[in-house]
Amino acid sequence: MNQVCAIIGIGPGNGLALTRRFAREGYQVAMLSRDIDKLKEWEQDIAGAHAYQYDATDGDQAREVFARIREELGPVSVLLYNAGAGVFKRADETTLDEFEATWRVNCHGLLAATQAVLAQLREHDQASLVVTGASAALRGRAGTAPFASAKAAQRSLAQSLARQLGPENIHVAYVVIDGVVDLPRTREAMPDKPDSFFLDADAIADSIWFLTRQQRSAWTFELDLRPFGETW
Question: Which parts pass through the membrane (predicted)?
Fold first, then answer.
C-alpha cells in the first residue's frame, strides 16, 4: 500500500518544501490548493506529487477531494494542514467579513479536512495530523485581531483533536512558526534583514517530518520553530 501524505495549502515556501520532503521519503503527496496551474507545474517537477484543486474555506469540497485522493493514491496516513492566510488589522479597523474569512481558513478549514480524512487516518496502525500554526496563537498583538484570534482557536482545536485521537494512535501536533519564512517576496519587503533573520522552509519541513516519525511514548504536541535571532 502506498504511503500517502496530503498537504493543504501549497505555496513556494512551507507547502512546497513539505511536498519535496515527503516525496523524497517515498510518499505519494497530494498537493491541495486553489491555484491549480501552479500545482500542475510543481507536479511535473516533483516525482510523487499530485495536484488537486481545493479551497480550504469551502468545507463542502472536503469529502469529495479526499475520496478522490483515496481512490487515486490510497488512504492518507499523514495530513499536513498548512493553510493559514489572515488579516492583520486592529479590532476597530477590520470588517466582520474579514474576521470571518480568517476564521474560515484557519479553523473551519481544519475541521472540514479532519472530518473528511479521519476514516482514512484510522485505517493505519499509526497516522499523523500536523497543523502549521503561528506565534499569534499564543499572543494577540494590537494589529492582529482577526489573525491572532483565528490562530488561537485553531491551536485549541488542534489540542482537542490531539486528546481525542491520541488513544487511536493518531498523532496530532501544532507547529508554532515564530518568524518570517525566507521567500522572494519577504526578502523584497525586508531587504535590510540578514540571512539569519529568516526561517528556512526546508528546515521547517525537516522538523515536521520528524514529528511524523515520533514514537507514541514521547509525542510532541506543540513545537516552536524560530531563527536563533528572533526575539521571544
Answer: none
Three cell numbers at 12?
513556494
pLDDT tens-place string over residues 204-221: 999 999 999 999 999 999
Residue 61 three-state SS: helix
CA atoms of 15 and 12, how far apart (whole Å):
7
161-183 pLDDT, tens digit per residue, is: 999 999 999 999 999 998 878 77
User: What string of DSSP letters covers 144-193?
Assistant: -HHHHHHHHHHHHHHHHHHHHHGGGTEEEEEEEE-SEE--HHHHHH-TT-
Length of the chain: 232
Task: Note whether residue 139 is domain-resident.
Answer: yes
Average pLDDT of the chain is: 93
Query: Residue 47: which domain range?
Result: 4-225
Q: What is the CATH number of the domain that holds 81?
A: 3.40.50.720
User: Is 43 contained in some domain?
Assistant: yes
Number of domains in the chain: 1
